[in-house]
Amino acid sequence: MFFLLFSLFAKLPSQKKVVPKAQTCLASKQQLILDVDTNEIIQSCGAQTLMAPSSMTKILTILYTLELVKQGKVSLDEVVTVPQEAYKTEGTTMFLEVGQRLTVRELLDGIAVISANDACRTLAIHICGDEAVFAANMTAFAKKIGAKQTTFVNTSGLPDPQHLTTPYDLAIISLYLLNSHQGQLDRFAQQEFTYNNIHQYNKNVILGRSSPLFVCDGLKTGYTEKAGYGIVATAYHPKTHRRILCVLNGLHSQGDRKKECLQMLEWAFKNTDQKIIHKACESIATLPVRFGDLDVVNIVPKKNVGYVHIIGSITPEIKVTIQLPKFLKGPMPASTKVGQVVLCIANKSKKIPLVTAVAIKPAHFLKDLWHRVRYFR
Fold first, then answer.
1. CB–CB of 348/280 below 8 Å?
2. Does the structure show a pLDDT above 50 at 13?
3. b vs e for 330-346, b when ≥16 Cβ sit within 10 Å of the residue's Cβ?
4. What is the chain's percent helix, strand, coil content, to nearest 5?
5. In the chain, at which end, N or C, are there fewer CB atoms within 10 A of the end residue's CB?
6. Strand, coil or helix: what is 271?
7. Closest Cα to residue 34, out of 312, 346, 323, 247?
């Protein structure tokens, strides 16, 4: 293993600057603000506290279904028949009728836009035969991607003492959706939805709200009497396309939810900035290859290597360490982890995997034979 070291040192400002104070929890019980491009938490309050996620559950319901679509196990265009168990499901609804036929795509739109609980149950029964089985499967998927404290017992977020997650886990689930299914964000951004000649509006009232600093385009609201009002909100800067994710829960009213969410987004876009040192999927190094069809292969970060800082504050000392082996041995699939970047900022560090940019196929016979002779020890 060898190390490539790069250091950036802080420069003292020529004059004293006023550093904006970080926001604090206002009306919400739980709060998390995250810079999507650097995967860095800007601020949190009760982010690891277990809570009832209400309809924010549906982000995972949709994500898990999209994963099954990606794997070829489900098709967006396959036809679903509404079962008796889904008819007149408690809470928000698409007003589905027993025996009615519609597509998976239509069900996902109904879940994302109008938070339809009957659509959630219909989808789960269609895919797994039972909602509880679907919920267990999507919980297992959530834990696999890092949402370790999440346990969902249904697909809609209807109250249950065992149906729990944290703001941090909701952020992980939402990040995975944003990074792995970017094209699906448009589904959440729809402001209205019509089915069975019934026209309904998205319950996320911050959608389309814009300023010179940001445009809101997602993601999901939630409410139960016990949990209060919550939201997982996404917004992007119209010029730089920087994206910020905000998770709030435990608010007392829709008005409080709207006000605090917009206030937190405004503060984050106005008073923080991101610095990208290495972009994801751009070559950061090359490594020689043995026993493969390639002589060298590009190595890329799996995620952006960067950080967020408060505008006006002193730039911290940054050290980036690239850890890689001397060579790779084929064959090897694309996106295989072969090393890591360690980013150290003011005594804190985070690790970003380094992966192969392309697949390394087996070397042809003569090249393989030559390498066996050349590298024989």
1. no
2. no
3. bebeeeeebbbbbbebe
4. 30, 30, 40
5. C
6. helix
7. 247
pTM: 0.88
pLDDT at site 4: 40
Q: Is 64's pLDDT higher than 50?
A: yes
Tell me how long the chain is: 377
Q: What are residue 287's DSSP bridge partners?
A: 297
- pLDDT exceeds cutoff 80 at 20: no
CA distances from 159 to 55, 227, 307 (A): 10, 9, 38
| Three-point CA angle 82, 59, 353, nearest 5° | 135
With CA atoms as reference, report the closest residue to 93 among 112, 107, 114: 114
- Among 52, 43, 40, smallest CA distance to 264 is for 43
Residues 37, 359: contact at Cβ < 8 Å?
no
- 9 burial type by CB count under 10 A (0-12 exposed, 13-18 middle, 19+ buried): exposed
Question: Is the CB of residue 191 less than 8 Å from the CB of residue 201?
Answer: yes
- Pairing, β 285-290 against β 328-329: parallel
